[in-house]
Design a protein that fits this description.
Length: about 200
């Protein structure tokens, strides 16, 4: 398997603790790996493959659970003393920021998140996981326990060649605004939103 090109590396102190941050290049995008502890040659590493969400993570939008899931993942790998968050630049399940805002406008008119994407001419989820597999290979991670609620992410990573040996729930961030969105993810996209699933 090819490795994603490695571009830069530093230690990043955060409210969750210090992370070993590496930037990987993928065509015109820069993806990040925020790691803790040994990774090279390690098995069953706690991993979160997280897609960028500017509206939630920067502006505090309540329409989704993305920032809460990112915070949960960063805290979890610090608590474990080992793990990595792969931060992929795939805004809006791969449709981009502008189209995500257009989808939000359709949701204000009554469409759910799936139908809004379809009304804009997109599939339900356009994210790709090949670059995540390349990043894990470059880090030397041999197998992963994936922090996710999304069965399709498990399948996508496995199809990309990642040895997924387990799943850890990432249930966080439900509020009055996003409750319908989360129900759509559960009902129409198969997300596992009960922490006991």
């Amino acid at each position: 398997m090819d490795h994603a090109p490695f571009f830069a590396r530093t230690t990043l102190p955060t409210v969750h603790g210090d992370f070993d941050v590496r930037v990987f290049l993928d065509e015109d995008k820069e993806h990040l790996a925020l790691g803790v502890g040994p990774l090279d040659g390690e098995e069953a590493v706690l991993v979160r493959v997280h897609s960028e969400c500017l509206t939630s993570e920067v502006f505090g939008s309540l329409k989704c659970d993305c920032k809460a899931q990112l915070d949960l993942a960063l805290a979890a790998i610090q608590a474990a003393g080992q793990g990595v968050v792969l931060y992929l630049r795939q805004e809006g399940r791969g449709i981009g920021l502008g189209n995500k805002i257009r989808a939000y406008a359709l949701q204000e008119q009554g469409a759910d998140t799936v139908d809004a994407n379809r009304l804009l001419g997109f599939e339900d989820d356009l994210r790709q996981y090949g670059v995540a597999a390349q990043m894990l290979a470059a880090l030397g991670v041999r197998s992963v326990r994936l922090l996710t609620n999304n069965p399709e992410k498990l399948d996508g990573l496995a199809q990309a060649g990642v040895n997924v040996v387990g799943r850890v729930p990432a249930v966080a961030g439900e509020n009055d605004v996003n409750r319908g969105y989360l129900e759509t993810k559960r009902r129409r996209m198969g997300h596992l939103l009960d922490p006991t699933d």
